[in-house]
Design brief:
About 40% of the residues lie in helices and about 15% in strands. The chain contains 8 helices and 4 strands. A 4-stranded antiparallel β-sheet has the order 2-3-1-4. The structure holds inosine-5'-diphosphate and magnesium ion (MG).
Length: about 150
């Protein structure tokens, strides 16, 4: 089973979308294995978004992501890395399909509500950045045989 890192960004928390985003993943059948509310330090934010360090939007991105609390999560399931990216929709909400999280709840690229890992390798890196191994819980769900064949 794959694991991915998902974060409700400060705009999503302020707008009361945490429950909605968790609900979508729960209802799809994915399993929550880690969860915390935190406010990113500038160092954490710069590390998390290191690949964008040289982009013109980087200072604004760091200001945005550190502007309030975020909800960091780890979700587990079959093909979950790709599935979460699909459920989030395109980075630019103007290009996100209706029905996706960004296509439903966002307008501007700099206020796009959620972050999700873009590959298995990224997921591993991002999970390690925000969670210690003891904070990730492996457990059985009675429902799993009704979700996986
Ligand atoms: P992703 O979040 O869909 O993986 P990335 O290209 O990795 O998209 O960009 C990371 C984040 O940086 C985006 O989610 C968005 O918040 C912000 N961002 C990306 N491109 C722009 C831009 O052109 N203007 C402002 N913010 C941007
Ligand atoms: Mg990205």
């Amino acid at each position: 089973m794959e694991r991915t890192f998902l974060m409700v960004k400060p705009d999503g928390v302020q707008r009361g979308l945490v429950g909605e985003i968790i609900s979508r993943l729960e209802q799809r059948g994915y399993k929550l294995v880690g969860l915390k509310l935190l406010r990113l330090t500038p160092e954490q934010a710069e590390n998390h978004y290191a690949e964008h360090r040289d982009k013109p939007f980087f200072p604004g991105l760091i200001a945005y992501i550190t502007s309030g609390p975020v909800v960091a999560m780890v979700w587990e399931g079959k093909r979950v890395v790709t599935a979460v990216r699909e459920m989030m929709g395109a980075t630019d909400p103007q290009k996100a399909l209706p029905g996706t999280i960004r296509g439903t709840y966002a307008v501007d690229i700099g206020r796009n509500v959620v972050h999700g890992s873009d590959s298995l390798a990224t997921a591993e890196r991002e999970i390690a950045l925000f969670f210690s191994p003891e904070e990730l819980i492996s457990y059985e769900r009675a429902l799993d045989t009704w979700i996986y064949e």
